[in-house]
């Protein structure tokens, strides 16, 4: 079954609300009119009752009927029945009076032969116990016809107002939902080549402005992710092109003529280096892919960061000594994390710092134990990194050094991206600061990571 559109639902809702309100108002008006007629009839009958009592008071029996006829002639739709205290009928002013009438005192309503009557029973002499009963009948058929016509008019009004409201509601809903159709049109036009389309937030009503803002933000994220994916694919091709080209060229040159066994062995060793680098590149890419899908599950073991750092500093000490760089560490703290993963992250930062620290420079590893987190920083002296490049340092295959643009068998530009993935897997954050001749990478890890 086809679902109703939002405009149709709103139109039906408006129509239903209008119908309910109109019906409720009509019923109230009908009840009020009926109560008003009852009040008027009560006043009329009470007045006639007083007149009849006066007409029958101190009147000879032979003159009573004439006096009653004279009194009733002033109200054509009024009839009278007098019943004795023994229940015997004494007098009927009309032959059309129903045989059976209500006997209870007060006002009541009956129907007889298609006519409606208001009936009032009262004693002739209120101060006497054994007294005849007067029964006044007022024909209210015209009142009832009026109420029926009014009820028909109410139902007609309810139907017409519901229909008019449905039509106007459909028009209003369609006009009000025009921004949603505009959003739908923009969404239909989005493709990989048109992710830069945006909704005009300033023209949106307040209720949809936040949705439009979220929609535009989503498009921005998609555009950024697509651009990054495209750049990532291009970078992969760029990084693999050079070693593959080297392998092909070297192999083709080696096979152009017969060579001594030692030359083939040397060619295989050369090719092995390129293949090892390519294998490491593929492993790093797979590692990052696991991180993107939340598949990095670090162990939760108690670690002393000072001990972990000292092991790495001892490993890098010969390299630092050859480069004339001073290594140092200060501070200590304990966290829960994965030893091998954190060592890899810090190793990437230390290797990166050593490569860009000039001779006689310094590389410092600092550990600060804070109340709710542990801050680990690796900083090195040397040339500063411009502020516009800092946000891109953690992009894959990005190199801040413009001299290293071709694929290398040593560094592919994935180290900082891997470090960031490891830190995020531990629930932490990493950032880079560069000022006053120092470049500093700061890692913040929660103590309960």
Secondary structure layout plus pairing:
Layout: H1 6-56, H2 61-72, E1 78-83, E2 89-92, E3 106-112, E4 115-123, E5 133-139, H3 141-176, H4 178-188, H5 206-254, H6 261-292, E6 301-304, H7 305-323, E7 326-330, E8 334-337, H8 339-355, E9 362-369, E10 373-381, H9 415-425, E11 429-435, E12 438-446
Helix pairs in contact: 1-2, 1-3, 5-6, 6-9, 7-8, 8-9
Structural class: alpha+beta
Can you give the mean pLDDT? Answer: 83
Structure annotation, total helices: 9
Helix and strand run? HHEEEEEHHHHEHEEHEEHEE
**Helicity level:** 40-55%
Number of strands: 12
Largest sheet: 5 strands, antiparallel
Strand content: 15-25%
The order of strands across the largest sheet is: 2-1-5-4-3
Show unreliable segments: 402-409
Radius of gyration: 50 Å
How far apart the termini lie comes to 52 Å
Choose one word for the global shape.
rod-shaped
Description:
It contains nine helices and twelve strands. The chain is an alpha+beta fold and 449 residues long. It has a five-stranded antiparallel beta sheet, with helices on one face. A five-stranded mixed beta sheet has the order 7-9-10-12-11, with helices on one face. Helix 1 runs antiparallel to helix 2 (61-72), helix 1 runs antiparallel to helix 3 and helix 7 (305-323) packs parallel to helix 8 (339-355). It is rod-shaped, with a radius of gyration of 50 Å. Residues 402-409 have low confidence and may be disordered.
């Amino acid at each position: 079954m086809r679902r109703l559109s939002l405009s149709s639902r709103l139109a039906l809702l408006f129509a239903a609300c209008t119908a309910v309100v109109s019906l409720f108002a009509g019923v109230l008006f009908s009840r009020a009119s009926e109560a008003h007629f009852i009040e008027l009839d009560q006043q009329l009958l009470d007045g006639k009752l007083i007149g009849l009592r006066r007409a029958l008071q101190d009147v000879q029996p032979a003159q009573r009927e004439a006096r009653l006829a004279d009194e009733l002639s002033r109200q054509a739709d009024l009839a009278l029945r007098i019943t004795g205290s023994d229940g015997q009928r004494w007098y009927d002013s009309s032959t059309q009076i129903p045989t059976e009438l209500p006997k209870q005192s007060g006002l009541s309503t009956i129907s007889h032969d298609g006519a409606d009557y208001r009936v009032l029973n009262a004693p002739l002499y209120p101060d006497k116990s054994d007294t005849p009963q007067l029964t006044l009948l007022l024909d209210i058929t015209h009142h009832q016809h009026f109420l029926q016509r009014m009820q028909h008019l109410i139902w007609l009004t309810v139907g017409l107002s519901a229909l008019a409201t449905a039509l106007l509601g459909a028009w209003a809903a369609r006009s009000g939902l025009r921004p949603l159709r505009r959003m739908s049109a923009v969404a239909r036009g989005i493709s990989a080549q048109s992710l830069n389309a945006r909704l005009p937030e300033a023209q949106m009503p307040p209720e949809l402005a936040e949705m439009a803002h979220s929609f535009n933000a989503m498009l921005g994220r998609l555009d950024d992710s697509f651009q990054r994916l495209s750049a990532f694919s291009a970078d992969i091709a760029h990084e693999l092109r050079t070693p593959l080209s080297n392998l092909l060229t070297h192999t083709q040159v080696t096979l152009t003529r017969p060579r001594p066994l030692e030359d083939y062995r040397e060619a295989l060793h050369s090719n092995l280096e390129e293949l090892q680098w390519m294998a490491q590149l593929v492993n790093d890419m797979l590692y990052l892919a696991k991180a993107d899908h939340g598949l990095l599950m670090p162990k939760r073991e108690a670690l002393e960061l000072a001990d972990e750092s000292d092991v790495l500093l001892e490993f890098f000490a010969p390299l630092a000594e050859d480069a004339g760089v001073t290594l140092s560490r200060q501070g200590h703290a304990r966290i829960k994390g994965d030893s091998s993963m954190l060592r890899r992250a810090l190793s990437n930062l230390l290797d990166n710092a050593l490569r860009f620290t000039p001779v006689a420079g310094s590389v410092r590893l600092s550990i600060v134990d804070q109340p709710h987190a542990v801050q680990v920083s690796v900083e090195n002296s040397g040339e500063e990194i411009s502020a516009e490049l800092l946000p891109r340092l953690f992009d894959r295959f990005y190199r801040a050094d413009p001299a290293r643009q071709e694929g290398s068998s040593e560094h592919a530009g994935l180290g900082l991206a891997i470090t960031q993935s490891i830190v995020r897997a531990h629930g932490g954050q990493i950032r880079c600061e560069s000022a006053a001749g120092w470049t500093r990478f700061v890692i913040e890890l929660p103590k309960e990571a």
